[in-house]
Write a structure and sequence with these properties.
Elements lengths: L1 E8 L5 H10 L5 E4 L11 H8 L3 E4 L13 H15 L5 E3 L7 H10 L3 E3 L12 E2 L3 E2 L5 H11 L2 H9 L6 H15 L1 E7 L1 H6 L3 H11 L6 E2 L8
Parallel strand pairs: 1-2, 1-8, 1-9, 2-3, 4-5, 5-6, 7-8
Helix pairs in contact: 3-4
Length: 230
C-alpha cells in the first residue's frame, strides 16, 4: 500500500485555516483535539463539528496531559466519551500529548475504545496498525536533531534509510526521497504539525508549498489516520 496522511495536534483555532488548505489540495488528515489546553487556545465544539464534516477528529486527552509517567484513566476515557458525544460517532485515533507514553497508558487508550495511537517519532514510513509513528514535521529540524531523535528511540532501520537520503534536513529533498522509496517499496508518508506553530513561525507559505508538492500523486491513496488500522 502507498499512502499519504497528515495529522495536526492541539486543536488550535488556526486549524480552520489549515483544513481549508488540505481541502484545496485534496489531502486528508486527522485533527487531534483536547477539550482544553493551558498552553494554547482550543477551537470551539461547533468549529470541531465543522472540521469533522471533511476530516477525522482524534483524541488528545481532555487537557493535553502527558501520559509518560501517568496513565490517567479519566483523561483518556473522558476524551473518548467527549468526542463520541460531540461527533455522534466513536472516535478511532488518539495522539499522545508530547509523544509521551507508558505501557499502562497504551493499554488504557486501547481499552477506552481508540484503535489507532500516534506518537511524535519522526522519519518513519510505517503507518500502522498498532503504535504508529510519523515521517516529517512541518517545523524544520536540523540534521543533529534528527540523528539524536533516531538514536534516542533506537530506530536504526529508519536511521539507515535517512542516511541513504544523504542525511538531508531539507523538507523537499526528504519528501522526494521518501515518496520515491514508497513508490518502490510501499509505506506511508505521514506529515504532521501544529497550526499554532505554523502561525507563530509564519510557516503558512511553506506548508502550502509542501501540500502542493505531495498532492495528486498517481498511485497513492490519501487517508485519515484512522484508516491506517485497516
Amino acid at each position: 500500500m502507498k499512502t499519504i496522511t497528515t495529522s495536526w495536534d492541539d486543536g488550535s483555532p488556526a486549524d480552520l485555516r489549515l483544513a481549508e488548505l488540505l481541502a484545496k489540495y485534496g489531502i486528508q488528515g486527522t485533527f487531534y483535539i483536547p477539550k482544553e489546553n493551558a498552553e494554547h487556545a482550543v477551537m470551539t465544539e461547533n468549529e470541531m463539528i465543522a472540521i469533522s464534516r471533511h476530516f477525522e477528529i482524534g483524541g488528545h486527552t481532555l487537557s493535553h496531559k502527558s501520559l509518560g509517567s501517568s496513565s490517567d484513566r479519566e483523561m483518556i476515557y473522558g476524551s473518548y466519551s467527549w468526542l463520541n458525544t460531540i461527533l455522534q460517532k466513536p472516535p478511532i485515533a488518539f495522539c499522545l500529548p508530547y509523544g509521551h507514553y507508558s505501557d499502562r497508558s497504551l493499554e488504557i487508550i486501547y481499552k477506552s475504545g481508540f484503535r489507532y495511537i500516534r506518537t511524535t517519532e519522526l522519519l518513519s514510513l510505517s503507518g500502522g496498525p498498532g503504535l504508529s509513528h510519523t515521517t516529517i514535521q512541518i517545523f524544520r529540524h536540523s540534521r543533529f536533531t534528527y540523528l539524536k531523535h533516531l538514536m534516542k528511540h533506537g530506530r536504526f532501520k529508519n536511521m539507515a534509510l535517512w542516511m541513504r537520503s544523504g542525511c538531508t534536513d531539507d523538507h523537499f529533498r526528504l519528501l522526494d526521497y521518501y515518496l520515491e522509496y514508497i513508490e518502490q517499496q510501499g509505506g506511508c508518508l505521514h506529515l504532521w504539525g501544529h497550526s499554532w506553530e505554523i502561525e507563530e513561525f509564519s510557516l503558512w507559505e511553506r506548508l502550502e508549498l509542501i501540500l502542493r508538492h505531495i498532492s495528486n500523486r498517481q498511485g497513492f491513496k490519501y487517508v485519515q489516520n484512522g484508516e491506517l488500522t485497516a
